[in-house]
Automatic annotation (TrEMBL):
Transmembrane segments: none annotated. Residues 107-141 are annotated as: Disordered. Residues 107-120 have a biased composition (Acidic residues). This is DEK-C domain-containing protein. Residues 46-104 form the DEK-C domain.
Amino acid sequence: MYTRSSERFEWETRAHSTCQKTFGTELFVLLVRRFAENFDKEMADEVTSEALRATVRSEMNGKPLEELTTKLVRRAVETTLGLSKGGLDEKKDEIKQYIDEFINEAEDEAEDEDPDDQLNDEPPAKKPKATTSAGAAPKNVKKIQASAMSGKQFESKAETLNVDVFGNIISGPPRTFTSGNRGWYAGGKIEIQVGGKKLWAQVGMNVSIIGSKEWAD
């Protein structure tokens, strides 16, 4: 990372003062802004993918995922890494990848709980079980589907997920999550109407196939 000695800081201060007197305040501000942009870019380039991924995960850990946006996480990471606002804009696609990865892992962990254990543990109060149009899922669904197909078969035969959310279509291609499960992830911003008011909402949908972690490649 960039550090400055006291002598260099003193020299830069005198240089800034001279530039301001020579070029005027407006041009001086422009030069300082350009210097800051270049400085931020150099610092951002020094951030490794591993460090960026770790910082993203640290900023998201323990926070309600539904309240986070890619931009909010990116700004928080910039602050943590000592960059000014917008310092990581050029890495926003990479950051979004790490955000999606974190969300998918969190949802996979929730989905990965053994369905058999959940069915065998009698809850204090009876709750209706989730069903599909075909009826209740089989009790041993994880074991049944563990050898249903291979990863390559899934990738070649699975269609793109298209979901209608209040008239907005969000799409996601089939994928393999970092946890090893196969499925789909679709997300984005959608426009909705509530009480005659136009509102924007962030949607994230994770579809994880139970037992797919066991599929051979």
